[in-house]
Amino acid sequence: MPPRYAGTVDRWLTGVRQRLDPATGLLPHTVDPATGAPTSVARGTSQSIIQRFLVDIDPAFARSQYLRFRSLFVVQPLRLGPAVREYPVGTDGPADVDSGPLPLGVSLSATAVTLGAASVAGDLQLAGALANYGELVGVPVSTPWSKRYAAGVLPIGDAFVAWSKTARPWVSAAQPPPSPGLTRWWRLPFLAALALAVLLAWLPLIRRRASAGAGGASVGAGGDEADARRGQAGDEQGGAGPEQCDEPVGALGVAAGHGEEEAAGHEDRGGQHAQ
């Protein structure tokens, strides 16, 4: 920054340090216009913009403020990814026109702007995580000429995202990365939730296919049993073998009763011839 601004910067930093929010140690969301005394707690919608510009005023002070902001406002609701609260952890408050709706205490606008604050602070891990998370929950719609989030119904949101993704320090040097704020496994719970959702969506189809396969197997088994019964009945109707006859069997395989009847017939015919 040009040397002629040094006096202004020093006076401003001195006044700011005297008027930090006592609950968080950060710049307050609102102050008394006459004295500069805090009139509200620090909030995510203002902190995300403050952290975006503070690095160009005093990088050392900006680093300490950013790390405190990250510890109090960046959370992982339901363990599904990073987001930024409107009020510090352990504190809740009402939503307004700046914060928008606050599901689980998270401000979507503060989350989008914090992407830029993380980039200028050198926290590329958090910036990348916020960008990746926004690609899924932000409902992006792409065309050959443009890309819009929230299905294109919130143009101001698109402006914030574009501004945050291109954020760089204006006059200060690129900042060294801070200590990681996320573990390398932060995606695992989110991916597990997605896998479970896909499995639940496919489960009815899997059940229907399993039921259809079981029904086909039952029909095939019933057909085999019917064929066996029909074959057995055919064997019984076709006649029993010699070993299954009730009459005694002679040496030539002729039943004894049939042989006697045939001999009697010959005797009758012989008598008739003689007669």
Describe this structure in words.
Mean pLDDT is 83; it is low at 241-247, 251-256 and 269-275. The N and C termini lie far apart (155 Å). The protein has eight helices and four strands. It is elongated and about 110 Å long. It has helices at residues 6-18, 44-54, 59-73, 108-120, 124-137, 155-165, 187-237, 256-274; strands spanning 74-75, 83-84, 141-142, 147-148. A two-stranded antiparallel sheet has the order 1-2. It has a two-stranded antiparallel ribbon with strand order 3-4. By secondary structure, it is mainly alpha-helical.
Reconstruct the topology from this structure.
Elements: H1 6-18, H2 44-54, H3 59-73, E1 74-75, E2 83-84, H4 108-120, H5 124-137, E3 141-142, E4 147-148, H6 155-165, H7 187-237, H8 256-274
Antiparallel strand pairs: 1-2, 3-4
Helix pairs in contact: 2-3, 2-4, 4-5, 4-6
Q: What is this structure, in a nutshell?
A:
The chain is mainly alpha-helical.
Sheet of most strands: 2 strands, antiparallel
DSSP summary: helix tally = 8
Q: What gap, in angstroms, lies between the N and C termini?
A: 155 Å
Structural category is: mainly alpha
* Strand elements, count: 4
Give the overall silhouette. Answer: elongated
Order of helices and strands: HHHEEHHEEHHH
What radius of gyration results from the CA coordinates?
45 Å
- Runs in which pLDDT lies below 50 for 5 or more consecutive residues are 241-247, 251-256, 269-275
Q: Trace the largest sheet across and list its strands.
A: 1-2
Oligomer: single chain
Mean of all residue-level pLDDT scores: 83
- Percent in helix: 40-55%
Q: Roughly what fraction of the amino acids lie in strands?
A: under 5%
